[in-house]
Write a structure and sequence with these properties.
Helices cover 34% and strands 21% of the residues. The chain is built from 27 helices and 37 strands. The strands form eleven sheets. Strands 28, 29, 30, 31, 32 and 33 form a six-stranded mixed β-sheet that branches. A four-stranded parallel β-sheet has the order 2-1-26-27, with helices on one face. Strands 6-5-9-19 form a four-stranded antiparallel β-sheet. α19 packs across α20. The longest helix is centred in the last third of the chain and has 22 residues.
């Protein structure tokens, strides 16, 4: 799409100087006010007990090299909140930093034959200038970068404190291995069986890994979701499902030995212990210890386990995959029927990470189990019948009449074919079977969580080194605190496959801090979510010698308003909630929840374009010839216009923010981002939309710079020059001004930014039609313009600052308090009253507020529709509800 690249600017005007052009020169104005704000330190803050604090934070970016439209929207939303709260008298902390570690930087450095550090630093410098060009009210003195040793030395200290507190441990575990990135992924980073960044199928591998004990807080993390009433409901629901609390029972199935091996007891966890009499098999996860043990003398089982290990590991991948199993030949005994044994399978749908890694299958009442049973010819025994089945119906009759087809019966019902449970409801049966299990020492009640401990080990270079040393004699030894930070070597080989730190010839060699003998550094680095799980606290005192001072953290935390994408609901947001609790347990913090309010912004979307061969085209490679037609610029061939989709580089439906800001100005881009749709919904980027925003920018600029001036004070502020009397139209517009203040304030408090913009535009529309002949119109016009400029200030700060200056103010708008509505201007002088005849609406009246009954009745009876409805019938009475309803009863 061809951008209108003509100069949108005009000559910059100073107060009292003539306007040289009819359009706003954003290039001069935006550069000027950004410089003024920076020179005066407008947005630098410190703790101030005399002011209420407000901490607004947008999720900090990965320094990829250039900002994208998602950044523009996210940071515009946060800036509106920050500027608005500042004007309302809050001491506002609004910082920015860089989530700078990660595999993309390592890969980019490898491709460009450079080191990740200078590549990252250059990207940060570029993006910093782009963000500054947006006019964002950041306190840049608090800027942090997570790959800076001065940052990550503190998280290394935290790790050692977590280790002392038992919140970190190392063990050999089956992990999610991304073969493209050659690193481990946490469960939360496996999306539909694929790596969250690489998109390739994830494998299972057995490795020694470091874990953080997030499961120690499972119940607390779940219960405290109820306190987050300023979080979107869908985010809380996503976390609730990810934590996944299940109530049920642990049950034991005895089994005999095989091939000279001893027998034992298999422990399973189930949420449906009531269906035990419908069990027809048990199944193990492929990486269950018993599966591994049985495979030692069974090559076919070993091959099956290998096949399972190469498949996707996520629940979503397993749910969609064909359910397959391997019969081990082992039989397990039913805990309530000594004569009944069940085959023991290894199955690809059983997760070691959930419960005990073993299940019993009841095909009649679980669809997954039913699919498996049909495949392998196993029994399907119904043990729960629909509730409409009479209790006195013989079991044999029910069993014959209630048959399971292709779908398992999973509704509530009554127990059948279940011995002592027959006739009970499902919940009654659960309680009864658990009592029997405990009495027989065959099981116990239990609560299980889907949440697993957070694996934080990553096999890559560009990350924070884990500060421990492995000694052959002493085992795992923490790096002494005085030796922190453990920094990365600058001469790592990024070309050789594998972990660059593990491959380094000397870096990994170290003396044991305990015994002094030769030892080996830990060569894994932290998952990058480790850095982002506490950065919000570092912003409180970013130059402190400790991670942060407790005094500053107690003043600023929690973050009052956090803004970012919904995609972080069960990654960054859950980890940060856990990390805050871990820091509290170690004495760093005094709170549990890091983010009091959360706003998840929608995506930026754009039409897609393809040429006749199917090749994707950028918007600037085509020219629109109609609403759904276009041609290519390189030869005029027909272009296929597709639906609007999330902006992505792969589909090339992206727009460069820098070109938009250069063409229209930052304020125009900000206005469009705010006015087109609510912040939590997707936004369609259109040329017509940005042009419309630009037209309004210029309209408002012309309104202020061409406004009439009251006699004797051409450009002076108007507070002291209010006329003694106002004309009727001027009075009405003055009321609109003050009601707009109240409405816009309410909208900004609720993050209804698009409504706020609409109300300001309505106000300026009212000002345009204000007649200069009406008494006091000039003063009301200027009052309205000053109000409009103040209200639009958080959204278009450069333009508003420029117009505030043009209106004769010497102070900065950025330092000006928010306008306050006058109470007497909010009082309604007229009210709209409904008029009914025998309870049916016949019309409405505009009456003076609190009119007497006689005035109201006379006006109501004079309405034509009321007269027609009465039709000469005698009036029995007239019921009047003051200021609301008049009902004529005939």
């Amino acid at each position: 799409m061809i951008l209108n690249t003509k100069d949108h600017g005009c000559a910059f005007n100073q107060p009292g100087q003539p306007i040289e052009m009819s359009r706003y020169n954003f290039k001069l104005a935006e550069a000027k006010w950004q410089s003024v704000w920076e020179d005066r330190g407008c947005f630098a803050v410190s703790e101030d007990s005399d002011k209420p604090k407000y901490y607004v934070l947008e999720m900090f970016p990965y320094p990829s090299g250039r900002i994208h439209m998602g950044h523009v929207r996210n940071y515009t939303l946060g800036d509106v909140v920050a500027r608005y709260k500042r004007a309302r008298g809050f001491n506002v902390l609004h910082p920015m930093g860089w989530d700078a570690f990660g595999l993309p930087a390592e890969n980019a450095a490898r491709e460009n034959k450079t080191h990740p550090a200078p590549w990252t630093e250059q990207n940060i410098a570029t993006m910093r200038e782009q963000l500054k060009a947006m006019g964002l009210s950041y306190d840049w003195s608090r800027e942090i970068t997570t790959c800076d040793p001065d940052y990550y030395r503190h998280e290394q200290k935290m790790f050692l404190d977590f280790l002392k507190e038992g919140l970190v441990y190392r063990k050999e575990s089956w992990v999610n291995w991304d073969p493209a990135e050659n690193t481990v992924l946490a469960n939360e980073q496996v999306i539909d069986g694929k790596g969250w960044r690489s998109g390739v199928d994830v494998e299972n591998r057995l490795l020694s890994q470091w874990f953080m004990k997030i499961t120690a807080f499972s119940e607390e993390l779940l219960q405290d979701l109820e306190t987050l009433d300023r979080w979107p409901g869908r985010v809380r629901l996503m976390q609730e499902k990810w934590i996944g609390r299940s109530e049920g029972a642990y049950m034991f199935f005895d089994y005999d030995g095989r091939n000279g091996r001893e027998g034992g007891r298999l422990e399973v966890f189930t949420t449906r212990p009531d269906t035990i009499f419908g069990a027809s098999f048990c199944a193990l996860a492929a990486n269950h210890p018993l599966s591994q043990d049985l495979s030692e003398d069974d090559p076919d089982l070993r091959a099956f386990i290998t096949e399972c290990g190469s498949a996707g590991t996520s629940e979503a991948a397993i749910e969609t995959a064909e359910k397959i199993g391997y019969d081990t030949g082992v039989r397990v005994r039913h805990p309530f029927d000594d004569e009944k044994t069940l085959p023991l399978y290894v199955a690809n749908f059983v997760l070691m990470e959930y419960g005990t890694g073993a299940i019993f299958g009841c095909p009649a009442h679980d669809q997954r189990d039913l699919d498996f049973a049909r495949k392998y010819g196993l029994d399907v025994i119904p043990v729960v019948a629909p509730r409409e089945t009479p209790r006195e119906t013989p079991r044999e009759t029910i069993a014959q009449s209630f048959v399971i087809g292709d779908e398992a019966f999973m509704d509530d019902g009554v127990l059948i074919n279940s011995a002592f449970l027959d006739g009970l409801g499902v919940e009654e049966a659960k309680s009864a079977i658990i009592e029997r299990l405990e009495a027989a020492d065959a099981g116990r009640p239990g609560v299980n969580y889907r949440l697993r401990d957070w694996g934080i080990s990553r096999q890559r270079y560009w990350g924070c080194p884990i500060p421990v040393i492995h000694c052959p004699d002493c085992g795992i030894v923490p790096v002494p605190e005085e030796d922190l930070p453990v920094v990365l070597p600058e001469d790592a080989d990024l070309e050789t496959p594998g972990n660059p730190l593990d491959n380094h010839p000397t870096w990994k060699d170290a003396g044991c801090p305990a015994c002094g003998k030769p030892a080996r550094r830990e060569t894994d680095t932290f998952d990058t979510f480790y850095e982002s799980s506490w950065y919000f606290a570092r912003f409180c005192s970013p130059h402190a010698d400790t991670a942060f001072t407790r005094e500053a953290a107690d003043y600023w935390l929690p973050v009052d308003q956090y803004i970012g994408g919904i995609e972080h609901a069960v990654l960054h947001l859950l980890y940060s909630r856990f990390f805050t609790r871990a820091l509290k347990q170690c004495g760093y913090l005094g709170l549990k929840e890091p983010f009091e309010g959360l706003l998840t912004q929608g995506m930026i979307c754009h039409e897609t374009y393809r040429d006749e061969s199917g090749k994707w085209l950028y918007p600037d490679e085509i020219e629109k010839t109609g609403d759904k037609s276009a041609r290519a610029l390189d030869g005029g061939s027909t272009v296929i216009v597709g639906r609007s989709e999330k902006m992505s580089k792969s589909r090339k439906n992206v727009v460069d923010p820098e070109s938009i800001i250069d063409t229209y100005g930052a304020d125009t881009a900000r206005l469009f981002m705010l006015s087109d749709s609510p912040p939590d919904r997707d936004l369609d980027w259109t040329e017509a939309g940005i042009e419309g925003a630009w037209r309004y920018v210029n309209r408002l600029w012309r309104m202020v710079n061409q406004a009439p001036a009251p006699a004797g004070a051409p450009l002076a502020p108007l507070a002291a020059s209010r006329p003694d009397t106002l004309g009727e139209r001027s009075k009405a517009v003055l009321k609109v001004i003050h009601r707009t203040i109240v409405a816009v304030s309410g909208d900004l408090d609720k993050f209804h930014f698009n409504r706020a913009v609409a109300r300001i535009r309505e106000l300026t529309n009212e000002l345009v039609v204000l007649s200069p002949e009406d008494e006091g119109a000039d003063w009301v016009m200027r009052q309205g313009l000053e109000t409009a400029v103040c209200l639009i200030g958080p959204m278009m700060p450069h333009l508003a600052e420029d117009l505030w200056h043009s209106l004769g103010h010497e102070t900065l708008l950025a330092d000006t308090p928010w306008p306050e509505a006058e109470a007497d201007q909010l009082v309604e002088e007229n009210v709209t009253v409904a008029v009914q005849v025998n309870g049916k609406l016949r019309g409405t009246l505009d009456l003076p507020k609190d009119s007497d009954d006689k005035t109201a009745e006379t006006a109501a009876l004079a309405l034509d529709n009321v007269s027609a409805a009465i039709a000469g019938k005698p009036i029995r009475k007239v019921i009047i509800v003051p200021n609301r309803i008049i009902n004529v009863v005939v």
